[in-house]
Design brief:
By secondary structure, this protein is an alpha/beta fold. It has one domain: Vaccinia Virus protein VP39 (Rossmann fold, 3-Layer(aba) Sandwich), CATH 3.40.50.150. Helix content is 35%, strand content 20%. It has a 7-stranded mixed beta sheet with strand order 3-2-1-4-5-7-6. Helix 4 links the parallel strand 2 and strand 3. Helix 2 crosses helix 3, helix 5 crosses helix 8 and helix 9 packs antiparallel against helix 10. It is globular, with a radius of gyration of 19 Å. It starts with a helix and ends in an 11-residue tail after the last strand.
Length: 255
């Protein structure tokens, strides 16, 4: 796992910056009803997407939450008074207080299945009936774009994907959320080059290939033989899933 306190200062620049944030925001907004209300951006990171969501939908009261102190401070500078430091497994928001909840690039970081369940449960809890939860899914798979780099890395050890779309949908269903749409956006600036991939391996980005271990260095050697060491390969396409909390109808709604 990366140290996101250390990453905060250069996180945006190393991950597509404003161009990627704009693409993500557009895709999220396509899945969020254009009505007044409250949106919670959970694990908002630097707030680069959160700020765009707020600017695009003035009728939405947008708030962010992130556990990492440096990330939360960066987001708070972009959206003063609307960002809190919080654990996404135990959100400090009232039940049924949000019209929309988003988690972008969060679930893939949670290697414990119980943690993924807890996050989805909390997002479902804070949604009001009729509210929508939108999350990224299948993030690791998105980076496999069929390049020569992917061919070299094909045999690397991998963890089961905590954010696999079917897994997330099953968690959502357990908490009464129904499928409500899909989306996708280009990860602008996220295409890998061989040299950048080598750097990522040596800094521990690939969590099951620790820096300095013989197998890690074997992959480094093979990547170093590829042509066009500085040329990024194709950008990934990230996937979104939306889930809706059913509205209360029938006798219960009259109580």
């Amino acid at each position: 796992m990366l140290d996101y306190d250390e990453e905060a200062g250069h996180y945006d620049a190393s991950r597509g910056g404003e161009a990627r944030a704009a693409a993500a925001t557009q895709a999220l907004l396509a899945l969020i009803p254009d009505t007044p209300g409250r949106l919670l951006d959970i694990a908002c990171g630097t707030g680069i997407v959160t700020r765009r969501l707020a600017a695009a939908r003035p009728g939405l009261r947008v708030a962010g939450a992130d556990l990492t102190p440096a990330m939360a401070r960066t987001a708070a500078a972009r959206l003063p008074g609307t960002v809190v430091r919080a654990d996404s497994r135990r959100l400090p928001f009232r039940t049924g207080s949000a019209d929309a909840v988003t988690t972008v690039w969060l679930l893939h970081l949670l290697h414990d299945t119980d943690d993924v369940r807890a996050v989805v449960a909390e997002c479902a809890r804070v949604l009001r009936p009729g509210g929508v939860y939108v999350t990224t899914v299948d993030k690791a798979a998105a980076h496999d774009v069929g390049s020569d780099i992917d061919a070299v890395l094909a045999s690397r050890p991998r963890r089961p994907a905590a954010d696999a779309a079917d897994t997330v949908a099953a968690h959502a269903a357990r908490h009464g959320l129904l499928p409500a749409g899909r989306g996708a956006f280009r990860g602008v600036g996220q295409g890998r080059s061989p040299r950048a991939t080598i750097a990522d391996l040596r800094r521990g980005w690939f969590t099951m290939l620790p820096p300095g271990e013989p197998r890690t260095e074997e992959f480094v050697t093979r990547l170093a033989r590829l042509p066009d060491q500085e040329r990024p390969r194709r950008d990934p396409t990230f996937s979104l899933r939306a889930f809706r909390k059913p509205t209360i109808t029938g006798p219960a709604a009259q109580r």
